Predict the 3D structure of the following.
Amino acid sequence: MATIEKRIRNGETSYRARYRTPAGVQRSKVFTRKIDAERFLTTVEAAKLTGAFIDPALSKATVREWAHQWLDGQAHVKPTTYARYEGIVRKHLDPVWGHVPLGKVTHADVQAWITAVSKSHSPSSVRKMHRVLSLVLDMAVKDGRLVRNVAKGVNLPRPIKHEHRYLTHAQVDALADAIAHPTDVSKHVPLADRQRDTYRLIVLFLAYTGLRWGEMAALRVGRLQFARRRAVIIESVTPVAGQGLVWGTPKTHQRREVPIPRFLLADLEAHVHGKTSDQLVFTGVRGGEVLRVSTFSAALATAAQAIGVPGLHPHELRHTAASLAIAAGADVKVVQQMLGHASATMTMDTYGHLFEDRLDEISDAMDAAREANRYRLASAAQLGVSEPNSPGSEDRR
């Protein structure tokens, strides 16, 4: 049972409120006024009845202690994701929040921190920092150390939407030719002719399949199904700081099949001729080793500059594949499957504006279907043939 003990020391009166936690552990807190002690105990007893009680001793753990315990529980995420989490904890959470007890973190403090880091970091980086802190506090709530997550509901900087660049068919061909046959060799990365042919094929392959770089770099010969014109994507490889190359599943952990255009088949078959099924399709200069994106990017940047598309990044070939597929008539679900997005919503969020460009095609197709239907009905009437109304036909005169 909760009690209040009156104490007088050195002529000053105080009131110690004693209570037991739901676990039976005795706790106490000292107040200068009896009314405050009474109000505190009323709050404690109400919290115990509703299941909202938090033992103050549990919330004394520091953010640093809890953040590192949270990190220890992230072994299930991809190595690249873990490396990003660890970097944020080490560089941004520990220096600012490390010494602060969980129970002392306030919503206002988090908002002030977000405002401060927004002055020196991009909106995207700030949002990632906030997410990690919020995940750490979320676990503290679930563990019964906090009543609520005070990081939720803070005002975050709006993410900057970068305009994607989409190459046309002609630009893709020009880029592939430029990387294989540079007009000014002095400005290009020195490469053997065979490697330049490989780079040419990579440009075309990425621009027409939409693979992520890590998926392409991990693609093995046995996963190219030439008869079905498919590439089976079940693996990805990524460089991680301090760990070297890390192999794993694709970004969404899902196996998928990606269509290969017919015009690429002959070049692909010639490229992998003589390789075993478990060898990599595309390799580095020395052969057999994983092709690093940094190595390819240098050659790509020079070729892109030569055709008037400066600063082109390999990932923009993935965006190009999406735009070319949409322009060719692919619907959102097909594009989602091709790119390996977790949901059609993600595909629409990224490329929805490209589908809007095809709205006229829909109305034109409906116009054509309507006129064809009217012509068919008119022809039937002239021949004296009566037809039942079919879905989409009209019965207007």
Remarks:
- The chain has four domains: 3-53, 60-142, 169-349, 358-397.
